[in-house]
Structure formats: structure tokens, C-alpha cells
Amino acid sequence: MKSAKHFRSAVVSVSLLLTAVAGTVSAATDEAVIQCRQKVMTAVGSHVGAVADIFKNQLPYGKDRIAEHARLLRGSVGMIESAFKQQTADTKTDAKPAVWKEWSKFEEKIKALDAEVAAFEKIAASGSPQEIGGQFRKVGGTCKGCHDDYRKPKEESRKK
User: Fold this and answer.
1) 92 in the Ramachandran plot: left (φ > 0), alpha (ψ -120 to 50) or beta?
2) What pLDDT shows up at residue 22?
3) How many H helices and E strands in the chain?
4) Please, are residues 92 and 31 in contact by the beta-carbon 8 Å criterion?
5) Residue 14 counted as domain residue
6) pTM (2 decimals)?
7) How far apart are CA 37 and CA 31, in angstroms?
8) Is residue 81 in a domain?
């Protein structure tokens, strides 16, 4: 019970912080917005990568570790929309301008990802390894679908 209270308290605190920050985003520089956005996407990628490593390398962490990554992934995915809300100059970013030109389609893809991650979080807590792996592949496919449409190809990446 105590950890549930702490979790709710943390969620409320983060929500209040994000609300306060959201009011200042419009005044933020493109560079600052991009840096924050990249950190959100790095967090998403880190949790996806960690789970992939657990499966790929048959690491002995078990379902509890995967469930924790699923929970944290859900929180990170929940920040994607606000991270991309402000359109930025097409510099030092891997986001295609199509993100903002097709904002409603982009939002639909985020919602689809959130739904798959929510299912993954639920299955990771109580499913079989096969069910967890199957849902994790759905999460990966949804990520890829968004990247195909809204992320620059590697040859155009800022990371070259």
C-alpha cells in the first residue's frame, strides 16, 4: 500500500511539474525543445532496448524486471505528444517536418503506441513469456510504423 501511495504522489508531482513547464514551452528555444524531446525518445528507446536485451540474451531478470520496464515505458510514451507539440526548425533533429504537417495522424500513432504499451504493461505483469514476447513485438511494430513515417532515415540522421 505504501508504494502505491508513493507512486500516486509521484504521478501527481510530475503532472504538476509538467503543467508548470507546459506554460513555458512556447517561449523555449528550438534547441531546448529538441534536447528535451530527444531525452524523452531516448528513455522510450532505453526501455524497449532493455526488454529486447532481456529476451535476446535470455537474461535472468525475469518477469518482474520486464514489468518494471513496461511501467516506465508507459510513462515515457505518455510524454511523446507534449515533447513534439512545439514545431522546431529542421536542424539537429531526426524528426521529419511531416510530424507537424500531419499532426492528427502523428497523434493517432502515439495513441496506438500508448494502447500497445498499456497492453504490454498488463501482460508483462501476469502473462506467460510467450504472451509477453508477442505483445512486445506489437509494441516494436508500432514504434517502427511511426519511425517509418516521421523519423529521418539513418543517412540523414543528426547522429551521423
Assistant:
1) left
2) 53
3) 7, 0
4) yes
5) no
6) 0.79
7) 10
8) yes
pLDDT computed for residue 154 by the predictor:
84
Instruction: Tell whether 146 is covered by a domain.
Output: yes
Residue with C-alpha cell 532481456?
54
Residue type, 109: K
CB atoms within 10 A of CB 35: 13
Instruction: Answer whether 142's CB lies under 8 Å from 118's CB.
Output: no
Residue reference for cell 496506438: 112
Domain count, the chain: 1
What integer pLDDT is reported at residue 6 of this predicted model? 55
> Could you report the per-residue pLDDT of 76-129, keeping only the tens digit for each?
999 999 999 999 987 788 999 999 999 999 999 999 999 999 999 999 999 999
HSE-up (13 A, CA, CB side) for residue 99: 23
